[in-house]
């Protein structure tokens, strides 16, 4: 039997009922912005960042968490003595700021939330210092200040040997014309930016696979990659802030961008308006994903529906700025390529990968 | 033997080493604000909210968490069927916004972080809906929008039966003259605003006391109060946003304010500059605190060093606006009174309570 994300134990239905209740209640608070000189843009709920509109700027607010990736770092640390908490901190910041920039906001301030079950977690100075160093490094990569945080001991809530890593980011769009509004058009071109691995997404399933392997995280992944499974999983996430900033500075309008996280490539159709996103220029999935597909085993269809498959960020641009976008991404240091195009096919919403015979219809993605 | 907060199992030394490492690294990121048109005010690190200064406003950022109070709600819910998750949500928002307003910022946007160990936590619709309703209510009391959030399932990190509740708030000070700068002067008067009970602080110790009581949270607290221990603990925190807003609207300058949380009344000397804060007009501690003192037993000195003792918020004002401040607080619906005065005694920093023969010197509070 092949594995799927549902079978790894995360029940999205139960979570989604809560999310829907939150969104419904949250909407009733929108009028409170007025006294502060802000208002809520009509389409911001359900996007990756919450936006507030003033006369001459937008503020953006993101609260995000790492998920369970640090459990992988914990096992690898115990087994090999190799401490990946610098990478884990970068992951945590990346997951926030990569969400924030999807509206065109650049992060100004990042706060840490680090909740432990026992304060003894911090007695390992090597691990503690790696976490601090990684967090500061990631703030610098994001061009944002590390603006405080919260580090509670939650005995009886958080397991003694672990840590909950999360945080929040404040961003700003100024001038307002730099907002990424989602004005995608038929014929827009799709640019992909490479990921460094699974980044922060699908880790529950990855941990389940480790449990099945005789060598666990020490298994070499092969497929031309000399790293172990643990090392490959713990490669730190790419921070895409410089890509958005570079495009803004060069005057390249980004019609929409997607941070490819939970739901894998289905996230490419996050935009509410229906389009068909055809990925015609496929790169082979990086070694880690080939390893996961085989080790699960996981069907190819489930792989692209769950993992980023080597693609961490996508941008949709007008054909006349396609080359300029690729050039901006590359000069900012990203591995970027032209991946496909956007088509209007009446009310159909889908992500299609013709060379693999795969198609994901809109009803397979519920994020609003 | 009497109980103390340290004996309840929270080791501040281990935590503080981490906090100090964070603050040191965070300071190196301050120059990154410049490109966004902001700078870091010299004295913001170590205060309850992180501030960023622009030409015509300040932005404020807070990341905060509830602590372990929901464990009390969980036990009471199991024992009595009475669900206090509406109150727990209010507590979580209160702990953020009451920190935020200490710099004079009014909250604009509040994001939720709710991490569970199992998504099944949300199958209890009554509890889930109470949490959502309380959060929205608290945002409205804070005049802030509920701007999104994050609700991960962290199996293996968060215990299956519990939830980590936290979040972040964005605030703004505009015009800049409304900033609360900490310009306290010899002879300033101290105004206290009542709390509703322990609010969100000292709960680890409160839970330990419940374990010692034959009737646990069902114990009537007495001292003229008919509630049970559980009910009294779970009274929702007071949100002090309207007090600060009312003072701002009436043009009353607040020289400094303190959100009385961890470290109890020692928080009254949070300001870096040394002063002696003499609390001459004492109200008896509310019934819940008398109960705690007796049940612990806890020495009176430890009580005031740990709990808010009926005082959730303090403001330091010039004598000529003392009456105006009291009037502003009362018309905004708060129970407020004139509690004492601030004295300059060379380099001495202390909180003194002459009628109880108590004094806390500055070296007993390390929050920077």
TrEMBL record, chains A, B:
GO terms for cellular component: cytosol. It comes from the Bacteria. Gene3D superfamilies: PurM-like C-terminal domain, PurM-like, N-terminal domain. Its EC number is 6.3.3.1. Pathway: Purine metabolism; IMP biosynthesis via de novo pathway; 5-amino-1-(5-phospho-D-ribosyl)imidazole from N(2)-formyl-N(1)-(5-phospho-D-ribosyl)glycinamide: step 2/2. Keywords: ATP-binding, Ligase, Nucleotide-binding. InterPro entries: PurM-like_C_dom, PurM-like_C_sf, PurM-like_N, PurM-like_N_sf, PurM_cligase. The keyword Nucleus does not apply. Residues 73-172 form the PurM-like N-terminal domain. Residues 185-346 form the PurM-like C-terminal domain. It holds the Pfam family AIRS_C. The keyword ATP-binding applies. It is an enzyme of class 6 (ligase). One of its GO terms (molecular function) is phosphoribosylformylglycinamidine cyclo-ligase activity. GO terms for biological process: 'de novo' IMP biosynthetic process; adenine biosynthetic process. It catalyses: 2-formamido-N(1)-(5-O-phospho-beta-D-ribosyl)acetamidine + ATP = 5-amino-1-(5-phospho-beta-D-ribosyl)imidazole + ADP + phosphate + H(+). Belongs to the AIR synthase family. This is Phosphoribosylformylglycinamidine cyclo-ligase. The lineage of its organism: Bacteria, Pseudomonadati, Verrucomicrobiota, Opitutia, Opitutales.
């Amino acid at each position: 039997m092949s594995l799927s994300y549902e079978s790894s134990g995360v029940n999205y239905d139960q979570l989604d009922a809560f999310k829907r209740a939150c969104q419904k209640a949250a909407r009733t608070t929108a009028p409170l912005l007025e006294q502060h000189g802000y208002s809520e843009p009509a389409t911001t709920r359900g996007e990756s960042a919450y936006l507030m509109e003033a006369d001459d700027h937008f503020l953006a607010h993101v609260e995000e968490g790492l998920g369970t990736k640090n459990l992988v770092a914990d096992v690898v640390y115990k087994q090999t003595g190799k401490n990946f908490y610098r990478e884990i901190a970068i992951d945590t910041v990346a997951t926030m700021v990569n969400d924030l920039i999807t509206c065109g906001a650049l992060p100004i301030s990042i706060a840490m939330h680090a909740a432990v079950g026992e304060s003894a977690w911090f007695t390992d100075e090597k691990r503690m210092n790696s976490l601090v160093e990684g967090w500061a490094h990631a703030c610098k990569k994001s061009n944002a200040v590390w603006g405080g945080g919260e580090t509670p001991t939650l005995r009886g809530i958080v397991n003694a040997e672990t840590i909950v890593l999360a945080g929040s980011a404040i961003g700003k769009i100024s001038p307002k014309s730099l907002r990424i509004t989602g004005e995608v058009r038929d014929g827009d071109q799709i640019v992909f930016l490479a990921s460094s691995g699974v980044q922060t997404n699908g880790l529950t399933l990855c941990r389940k696979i480790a449990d099945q392997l005789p060598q666990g995280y020490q298994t070499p992944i092969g497929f031309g990659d000399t790293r172990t499974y643990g090392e490959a999983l713990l490669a730190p996430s790419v921070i895409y802030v410089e890509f958005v900033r570079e495009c803004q500075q060069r005057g390249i309008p980004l019609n929409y961008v997607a941070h490819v996280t939970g739901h894998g490539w289905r996230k490419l159709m996050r935009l509410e308006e229906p389009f068909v996103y055809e990925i015609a220029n496929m790169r082979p999935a990086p070694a880690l994903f080939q390893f996961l597909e085989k080790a699960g085993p996981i069907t190819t269809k489930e792989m692209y529906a769950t993992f980023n498959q080597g693609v961490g960020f996508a941008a949709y641009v007008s054909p006349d700025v396609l080359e300029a976008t690729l050039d901006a991404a590359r000069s900012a240091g990203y591995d970027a390529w032209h991946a496909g195009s956007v088509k209007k096919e009446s009310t159909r919403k889908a992500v299609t990968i013709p060379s693999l015979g795969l198609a994901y219809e809109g009803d397979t993605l519920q994020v609003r």
